[in-house]
Design brief:
The protein is α/β, with parallel strands linked by helices. Helix content is about 40%, strand content about 15%. Helix 4 runs parallel beside helix 11 and helix 5 runs parallel beside helix 6. About 50% of the residues are buried.
Length: about 400
Amino acid sequence: MTSARVSQRIGSIAESATLAVDAKAKALKAAGRPVIGFGAGEPDFPTPDYIVEAAIEAARQPRFHRYSPAGGLPELKQAIAEKTLRDSGYETQASQVLVTNGGKQAVYNTFATLLDPGDEVILPAPYWTTYPEAIRLAGGVPVEVFAGPEQGYLVTVEQLEAALTERTKILLFVSPSNPTGAVYEPEQVKEIGEWAASKGLWVVTDEIYEHLTYDGVPFTSIATAAPALGDKVVILNGVAKTYAMTGWRVGWMIGPSDVIKAATNLQSHATSNVSNVSQMAALAAVSGPLDAVEEMKVAFDRRRKAMVGGLSAIAGVDCPTPHGAFYAYADVRGLLGKEIGGIRPATSAELAALILDKVEVAIVPGEAFGPSGFVRLSYALGDDDLAEGVGRIQEFLGTAR
């Protein structure tokens, strides 16, 4: 009997659907096809100049050519603590910060550190595609709680209560949300946080879209809104979205000292320190003004309205207005089973494949984020491409019979 070449643990990881769609779109574009990609959650703006200059200066300093502490440069950890107090109202210490290679490593480190095999994590859906895979890699069990467009993609305490078992250890809470752009009102955040505290649960909260909210809807940190959580909360964040720094790979996790110490030990064996040059760029970002994100928000807001308007005009499509991040999450269940381009797609995955094949527009199907019947489109791309892409989708789906 021969053993498998790839371990079951790694072989069972689902591919990142968002990255897969983005890669396919880029490959087609490189081959000369006029593909428009709505797949990746990546601002189309360059990283601000003052951040780039900080990186150039750091690259010239020999001390940054060497290993540095696995948990992050002390000055960056201190700046992240100060930035968290400024933006979230949450007081923490530099010793409670771990700087990671992007937000994904922060997610992985957190679940690897907190979960034992069989522990359950309540996972509101639609969810970012990486969350359930990181939970499973740590031996945990994701328990999905789905909130559809009729409730604004926002889960209720009643739904969370129904998902609770004796194995539940963590509630994952994300607002603003990827993939839906949904943002919880302050009172909802407080209610959910207090419920979690009353059940003795940990809360892991991803705040990477904290600065991207619209229509006067505020960002509310559950760590601040529900102080009853005490030291059973872990905050995940990073510079990627706020400062258009996706390629720099700097994220972080903030938590109680024992958890951060353990996660730092894990990272010391996995990757050691994050690139020092990227860390110094991140230091300039979190210590500097928020002017760059305010400028991006003006463009994102304009594109958000254009995309929602265009998608909502299609018969069979319901697209709630997102109040955060830079995604629209459209309900396309009204189109499934209808004839479009000579084919009757039965799932949103089939519909997304059909749209890419027939009109060369790349979108991500709902299967990547939870149940079928939905599609995610990022509006973090140029206005002209957005108008062209939505126009192609409108024309094609308008033929549904």
